[in-house]
Amino acid sequence: MSYNYEQVVWGSNTASLSFTSATSFRLQNILAAIDSLPNKNVKILEIGCGGGQFIRAVKYYRPDTICHGCDISQVALEKARALKDGVNYDLCGDKLTYADQSFDLVLILDVLEHVESPEAMVSEVKRVLKSNGLFFTFIPCEGDYTNFIFWLQKFGLLKNITRQCAGHINQWSRKKWITLIESLGLKKVKVNYSEHIIGQFLIVFTFIMLRRQAQKFPNKEVNNEEFYAAAYSSVWGRLFKLIKNCVNILINVETRLLQRVPSSNLHALFKK
User: Fold this and answer.
1) Of 44, 82, 186, 226, which residue has the fewest beta carbons closer than 10 angstroms?
2) What is the pTM of this model?
3) Assigned domain for 12 exists
């Protein structure tokens, strides 16, 4: 079952450091990576930026940076450009259009699990990175023993749910992802983790609801952002949003306390 990335836009919102946001820890890691770079006028590329959720936030929190985002979805890029957020958005495919050694930092967030050839994508990351440049990635590792969905599927439950509802075709372990990236010539600098227990219950709940939506509307792709936006606009929207914000706060506290403890949501920083 293929996933239509033109029908639904990922990353339409803007990431935030607020503990009420599910994006907080990823953004914190990105900003820390920028701070660790010695040069000024840092040039950053996000591959698979969607509607610009993270690269737009980077430009907001660090207006001194030069930010580029690229994606395969023309629809997503048009929405991102309409916001006039100071980011340069480009259409891209498997082969990036940027020159060798163009960027100080490359970001790939929630994308490698979607692509046919993650090896080719990481090779492109290495090509466009400057010498001593950094690569930060976030990957949900659904083939890892720390993943709740991994175990549910072992017992015959929620079969192929992330592939069908989110287009995740690479359900690998943490070790396999890190080994792949290192094998392509990038050196691991830092690894930490998020969504250990509470976060994984929320992930399972979200995918169950997405499958229900898919069964109800079989000809329409729905992602988690659209699902929650619709829930917030419902009759019980205010209460639902309050509960969701409280859950996000708990998840962010849990993540900060346990970030060194392995979980299936991998945040990894590499150096060229």
Assistant:
1) 82
2) 0.94
3) no
**pLDDT values of the chain reduced to their tens digit, one per residue, 272 residues:** 456 777 778 899 999 999 999 999 999 999 999 999 998 899 999 999 999 999 999 999 999 999 999 999 999 999 999 999 999 999 998 899 999 999 999 999 999 999 999 999 999 999 999 999 999 999 999 999 999 999 999 999 999 999 988 889 999 999 999 999 999 999 999 999 999 999 999 999 999 999 998 888 777 777 888 889 889 998 899 999 999 999 999 999 999 999 999 999 999 999 99
- Torsion angle of the four alpha carbons 141, 143, 144, 150, in this order, in degrees rounded to the nearest 10: 110
Instruction: For residue 236, give the CATH number of its domain.
Output: 3.40.50.150
Q: Phi, psi (5° rounding) for residue 47? A: -90, 130
Residues 195, 250: Cα–Cα separation, whole Å: 10
- Look at residue 218 and give its three-state secondary structure: coil
Q: What are phi and psi of 194, to 5 degrees?
A: -140, 175
